[in-house]
Specification:
Elements: H1 3-14, H2 18-41, H3 49-77, H4 84-111, H5 125-149, H6 153-173, H7 181-184, H8 186-195, H9 200-228
Length: 241
Amino acid sequence: MGLGEATLAVIRRSVGTRPRQWLVAITVLAGLSAAVVVVVAGRPADLTFATVSDPAQSLMSVTVPFLGILLVGDLRRASHAARVVPTLLAAMLVAAVIGIVGIVVCAAALAVAPSGTARDPWLHAATIAFGSVLVQIVAQLVGTGLGMLLRSFIIAFLASIVLPLGLWFVLGSVEVLHPAQAWLTPYATVRNLLSGQVSAMMWVQWLVVLLLWGVALNAVGAAWLKRRKPEGGAAAPEAVA
């Protein structure tokens, strides 16, 4: 099977079971709920694409890694050699689609918001939309990386939340380490990307976070997975949603 066919097969598996379909639906509904709450409860004068997208995309990014964890879990049950690249490509494409759906949801929520919104509610909309997709891709890569490193799905689910958030909290609680938040934690870059006001330095910080949590984490995970599952050998079966 070629790379393209293998990637499409993984994409189909991402919604191939009822629990995975529910996971995708819950992710989208979480973003929709956040957008609606902001529009309904927020002050009309403060409503912008940024103020709606920030909570919506942030909440969606909490559950997006769960799908990546499930997808890389399929590699352990494969009877053939684990093919990590198609799984990662498919996971990123699925995350990008979820990000785009979130963009549509946020735009629709803002479009139907009461009159009297901010003077320029669509300020930096293009940058925020692009950033929304990047947020979900990085979140997904955190999930795939931890999914390859941690055999237990439950532990990997929890780690996808606790590790980034815990590191963000630790760095923020020590004043001298506070600047490192923007360089080492996904949560800090999410705030920057979804604000729309992204400076050149912030793009560099996002790139560093991508290299750490996306590239390096998945490289280590792929190496660990290959070590635990020799080429051509099947791993022990494990139940998965």
